[in-house]
Amino acid sequence: xxxxxxxxxxxxxxxxxxxxxxxxxxxxxxxxxxxxxxxxxxxxxxxxxxxxxxxxxxxxxxxxxxxxxxxxxxxxxxxxxxxxxxxxxxxxxxxxxxxxxxxxxxxxxxxxxxxxxxxxxxxxxxxxxxxxxxxxxxxxxxxxxxxxxxxxxxxxxxxxxxxxxxxxxxxxxxxxxxxxxxxxxxxxxxxxxxxxxxxxxxxxxxxxxxxxxxxxxxxxxxxxxxxxxxxxxxxxxxxxxxxxxxxxxxxxxxxxxxxxxxxxxxxxxxxxxxxxxxxxxxxxxxxxxxxxxxxxxxxxxxxxxxxxxxxxxxxxxxxxxxxxxxxxxxxxxxxxxxxxxxxxxxxxxxxxxxxxxxxxxxxxxxxxxxxxxxxxxxxxxxxxxxxxxxxxxxxxxxxxxxxxxxxxxxxxxxxxxxxxxxxxxxxxxxxxxxxxxxxxxxxxxxxxxxxxxxxxxxxxxxxxxxxx
Length: 468
Ligand SMILES: Cc1cc2nc3c(=O)[nH]c(=O)nc-3n(C[C@H](O)[C@H](O)[C@H](O)COP(=O)(O)OP(=O)(O)OC[C@H]3O[C@@H](n4cnc5c(N)ncnc54)[C@H](O)[C@@H]3O)c2cc1C
Ligand SMILES: NC(=O)c1ccc[n+]([C@@H]2O[C@H](COP(=O)([O-])OP(=O)(O)OC[C@H]3O[C@@H](n4cnc5c(N)ncnc54)[C@H](O)[C@@H]3O)[C@@H](O)[C@H]2O)c1
Known about the structure:
This protein is 30% helix and 22% strand. By secondary structure, it is an alpha/beta fold. Helix 1 packs parallel to helix 9, helix 3 (47-64) packs antiparallel against helix 4 (76-86) and helix 3 (47-64) packs across helix 7 (181-192).
């Protein structure tokens, strides 16, 4: 095994793997270091298993809206078995083979920066090895759940996204702290799979607070229909769990405490940089690695350090981490050749990223919310439309509820943000992503005729509502 490579990547999640792929395609040699499983958090404890758990719940919602169809009880062991299959039963040999086929060198162990262009790899048996990079070191170590300092909370060893996505049984009574994406998706998954009581504690006034307000409102209606209890303007102030894994008591600012069999904390993430050797190159341990639009770390001299994916804090989404990784791999290869194409830049930025929340209703958004667009000084006009009154949506089932909103930059007559909330809207989002990213003028968008009778007819309705 060589000790020197053009590029060394630390972390073999979706972001790290894609850097290696692009750098090698660009003619460079590469090594990647992974301490747990190649494929990263996304493949084993986040995106993939969470969607496998949500799929039957989503489908059950669809079936319940179609008269003439009925669904028996969900076979939970079968759902969990399929979830295990989707995560390859926590076996990463297929991913490792893919990395080797790139070809890139795979090192199993913890990687730490050890001064400029040097990475120290510590294997599980304690064996150490130092490898060096001729061109670049790329950090792709992802993020870990952030646990609030609420008294008793850490000691209660609550579930985080890691445990809930790997659950081997469904708790009878579940309390969820947080109103973001993980909280919403996993509350619905656990409740749909049989939790008898699910209570979600949100410290603000609504779910999904970074999205258009109607997203959280429609989701809250769906929670209420399903019997999920949503409590806003509240938080856990103290937690007790005398027996490890036993009953847990969650004390609230007022009223009686909640008793549960499990507690899920879904209060955001922090970058996985606590033990990464950042301080050996002048950066602060435990912080986000700030990067420019080419993914190059801004706080390090000589431009040899890059960071992609969750670790740079731009957009905590797999597809955005992979986008950054493609840019990063191409940029490193181009810089090694001495040329740099201007297109190799993050043109999207974090806040504008497309995102689908896989709840029922699905919540899909790209670009800016109305509030963010106004804050950015854009002269904004918005149009909203009831998705349920689009024929294609109505045909999906009785009681289809949904809404769409477009945020228009009036000076440029282009869309700067679109949100769809409703069942079966996930795959509709990419049409909005194209319109927003390519800045398609509304007068041209008008000629993109949606097919009848599909949910995509919402485009026609939105443009008509705008006045076209
Ligand atoms: C429950 C949940 C559901 C999600 N669902 C979605 C979704 O549906 N769609 C979506 O786009 N995003 C989703 N996300 C977000 C998504 O998981 C992350 O944005 C994505 O995993 C980030 O990819 P990454 O490569 O940056 O990091 P990760 O996937 O976290 O991979 C980082 C890798 O680095 C390794 N590592 C860390 N430190 C070291 C070290 N020092 N040495 C060696 N290896 C190291 C880790 O073991 C890990 O394998 C979800 C997140 C959660 C928590
Ligand atoms: N479908 C998807 O795309 C998907 C699914 C899951 C996760 N993710 C990504 O993973 C990331 C992490 O998700 P998340 O839900 O953990 O984070 P989040 O940032 O989406 O939500 C965090 C929630 O916790 C609350 N909170 C924060 N600190 C708190 C505290 N001390 N006490 C009580 N509440 C507190 C916030 O108000 C918010 O409601 C997200 O940024 C998201 O992009 C994406």
